[in-house]
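Hey, sorry to bother you again with one of my protein questions. A protein chain has come my way and I'm curious about its shape. I'm sending you its amino acid sequence along with the backbone structure tokens. I owe you a coffee for this, so here goes:
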Amino acid sequence: MCHVIVTCRSMLWTLLSIVVAFAELIAFMSADWLIGKAKPSSSQELDNRTGGSQEPYRPTLGIYGRCTRISHMQFSRRDTLCGPYAENFSEIASGFWQATAIFLAMGIMILCTVAFVSVFTMCVQSIMKKSIFNVCGLLQGIAGLFLILGLILYPAGWGCQKAISYCGPYASAYKLGDCSLGWAFYTAIGGTVLTFICAVFSAQAEIATSSDKVQEEIEEGKNLICLL
């Protein structure tokens, strides 16, 4: 018989697992890993003549994508074009970024799998006599290691030609040059920290769902068990 067991700790772990998976996925897909050096708009001179002001824009560069501004003939219309600069995996700008993409993708796949499974932990608490929370916590720890490897390798690719074109000639491995780090990089770091927190907290979720109070309510014949 299926018993629906909901506790504060198990629900918090489930929510954190889902948030972490989405955060890492969004960061990976974003082009805001590096914010390039400021470039003047092609219409800046015209704006100065007419008394207006057009601040220089800063293009952004991700692991496989980029965002840049395209100025049209009307000068008053300027669009930001975002999309992948690499049509396939081999065209990613640096071998280090290729390795980063692999490690991050593996970590994110594991996190998404755990996030999906975590939704069903209210009904299923064990798999082959092993706690599903402990299994998921172990997988989250492995995913965290993949994410760390990817984030460590990523700055090693700052010396590639693509990064130099955005960050200036002084950019090199682990040196940003004229660039700055974008929100996607910090989001990936924050998501990695939360991944390990989730891995540790999964043990608390397992304790909460197998406590004596839960067992007592199961023995009383209750199918829906909600505990603080």
Observations:
- The radius of gyration is 24 Å.
- The first helix runs from residue 8 to 29.
- The chain has one domain: 4-34+93-226.
